[in-house]
Amino acid sequence: MIASRLAEPIERGRARLRSAAWALRLTWSVQPGLLVGLVAVTVLRSITPAGLALSARGIVNGAIAGLHAGTPGIGPLAPWLGLGFALTLLEGFGAQVANLLRTRLRDDLTCRVTGDLLAHAATLDLAFFEDPRSQDILQRAQDGPAARITNFLVNIIAAVGDAVQVASLLGILVVIEPWVALLLLLLTLPYLRARWRLAAAQHALERSRTTKRRWTGYFVGSLTTAAAVGEVQLLRLAPLLIERFRNLMEEFRRQDWHLAWLGFSRGTGFVVLTTAAVYAAFVHVAWRVLHGGVSVGDLAIFGAATARLRLALENVVSLVSQAMADTLAIADVQAFLAVRTRVTAGGASLAIPSGDGRVELRDVRFTYPGAGTPAVDGVSLEIAPGETIALVGENGAGKTTLVKLIARLYDPDEGSVLFDGTDLRTLSREALHQRIAFVFQNFGRYEASAADNIAFGDWPRLLEDRQRVEAIGHAAGLDELIAALPQGYDTRLGRVFGDADLSSGQWQKVAVARAFARPASLLILDEPTASLDARAEHALFEQFRTLAHGRTTIIVSHRFSTISMASRILVMDKGQIVEAGTHAELLERAGRYAMLYDLHARTRLRVAS
Q1: Which of 180, 355, 364, 385 meets the CB 3.0–4.6 Å disulfide criterion with 415?
Q2: Quick one: 402 exposed, middle or buried, by C-beta within 10 A (0-12, 13-18, 19+)?
Q3: What is the value of pTM for the model shown?
Q4: How far is residue 308 from each of residues 94, 172, 247, measured CA to CA in Å?
Q5: If phi over 0 gives left and psi between -120 and 50 gives alpha, with beta otherwise, what is residue 315?
Q6: pLDDT tens digits along 486-507
Q7: CATH code of the domain made up of 359-445+519-583
């Protein structure tokens, strides 16, 4: 029974030590010289208080001895005065050096840790970012991870320095009054335990707030971002959202005040008890001076040493408890770095078999994490090289999921997807994606120049090739759009950093141009005309026919005018392909496609009338 009770706290302690060791190894790999230098300077500074106390003792005793001998002079005091001056200078200079080293180490760690987190995020599959259960992990990993590691490092080094200071001062006090050192240590241990428990409670509270913190960010974004403000104002939602924001902040305030009061009460108790102990000891040493037990210099050094010791002990407790809390936050960073993609790495070689874009699916099934039913359920399909097919169906039928499986943004739970006869899971994702151009429903609106927005489609080749970028823009029908921009292709687009913004339809045209910039044998268009009017849609059709020539093309669309350019239409429902054929064949069957087409036609008639 006792063993089982002890097992959990022991394992928690081991976990904290593992996090601390990981942070130290990371720091060592970044800047070992800076780390050694910072530790050395901190330890050197930590022994100066004891040296200053000894200097003060020598000065006081020397002055008194000179007065008693009737030969007062500065000469006997000079060594002690010199020592005090040197130590004071060392303490001040060391503080400046330590601050310089901390700043550089913090910057280097920030670059390394942030870069590592972004690099790891780039390896994770799309399903992870789409899973609501992943959002708290992401939020914790984004919550100042580099600062947490840096703070742990700085706090633990400072704690080591203060511990050395405590040890050196205790060495002095033990000689003069041994019992006071033991009393101070006995008072410190319960305070350390209380502060650690308080730090652990604070971290647990912050961890439990992660989702609510995201809600506060959501409320702020709804009231301050251009995409949301219009509807919020129209619906007069601001008072409601502000009230909900304030309710959460009030909850946080009450919880924070409770913990702050606990910290205040424990800290006050420690200050009162240790101060009482120090002054009781000081009075006792003064009594011994009056009775010839110790020298006046001993009294001076005892007073200085006990004052610094009490402060140093309080600092050690504060720094150690904060460092322990930092290890909890570091564990959150490690938890994010431990997340592994569901999409396997694929082949080691970047080369993939040469081919012309043949796609085959064999009994493919895929279920989103946490979902109860498959999004794609037993789909088998062959798409010939150069063929253009269309996927149609109601929302949630599985169309977008299916094309993301073909693009290997997900791996199927069962079955296999083949590209030019090779299972995607045996290929390098990077090389495969070079062969695929994809226009997403939520296409990118990059805060970059118009030229870069196109060049991003194949940026290693096109970023410095303006002539080719402009040729792609011309082929994609962007001449009129680009000509209307203030600096043409050099105009920075976007609402955050841009000089000009585009309409949704214009952004979609740029996204299509970006897709056609890739030398891809497979082209996937997910709702490529959703933001276009009828005239722009017709113009884009004509460009599609030219630009998609020779490429295997998959179109996902609700618009039957878009679907008409496909040589074969696949109808999906509940994750399965339920019909396949040409437009005429499917209408003749009078099945699901004919029903959807009829609904679409009647809707257009009602809108027209």
Answers
A1: 364
A2: buried
A3: 0.74
A4: 18, 12, 44
A5: alpha
A6: 999 999 998 888 788 888 888 8
A7: 3.40.50.300
